[in-house]
């Protein structure tokens, strides 16, 4: 079983930055994909970013492209999400997710919650205006 633990959430003013981390433990797999999703009150959980363990190739939602950066540390089994130029609409609970599937050209499973088998408990990010 894979365990995912997020950290780094908090309260920040608009325009500020936060860095989220996701530590993976348990029966981790060498390949696969890690993703970040978020869920605001009253809204569905939505895709934010994803990264493949092996190649480090990254994928972003249009709403965060150019502001957020996902990265991974294979040695530490950790994935991070650097969030810059934060906006009030970025306020949400942010979730880390993992799956052993890889992303191939043309696929979109990594943008769907149903694509991932493992989830963290979430960390709150609040951006004040």
Structural class: mainly beta
Q: How far apart are the first and last residues' alpha carbons, in Å? A: 40 Å
**Low-pLDDT stretches:** none
Q: What letter string, H or E per element, gives the SSE order?
A: EEEEEEEEEEE
Mean pLDDT, to the nearest integer, reads 94
What summary fits the major beta sheet?
Answer: 7 strands, mixed
The number of helical runs is 0
Number of strand segments: 11
Helix content: under 10%
Overall geometry: globular
Nearest-angstrom radius of gyration? 14 Å
Multimer state:
single chain
- Percent strand equals over 45%
Write structural notes for this entry.
The protein contains no helices and eleven strands. The radius of gyration is 14 Å and the shape is globular. With 129 residues, the protein is mostly beta strands. The mean pLDDT is 94. Strands 2, 4, 5, 6, 9, 10 and 11 form a seven-stranded mixed β-sheet that branches. Strands 1-3-8-7 form a four-stranded antiparallel β-sheet, with no helix packed on it. Strand 5 and strand 6 form a beta hairpin.
């Amino acid at each position: 079983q894979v365990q995912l633990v997020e950290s780094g959430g908090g309260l920040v003013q608009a325009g500020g930055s936060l860095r989220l981390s996701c530590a993976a433990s348990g029966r981790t797999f060498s390949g696969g994909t890690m993703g970040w999703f978020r869920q605001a009150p009253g809204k569905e959980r939505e895709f934010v970013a994803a990264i493949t363990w092996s190649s480090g190739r990254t994928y972003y939602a249009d709403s965060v492209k150019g502001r957020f950066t996902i990265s991974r540390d294979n040695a530490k089994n950790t994935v991070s999400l650097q969030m810059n130029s934060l906006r009030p609409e970025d306020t949400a609970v942010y979730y880390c997710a993992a799956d052993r599937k890889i992303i191939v050209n043309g696929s979109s499973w990594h943008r769907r919650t149903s694509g991932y088998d493992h989830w963290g408990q979430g960390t709150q990010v609040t951006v004040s205006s």
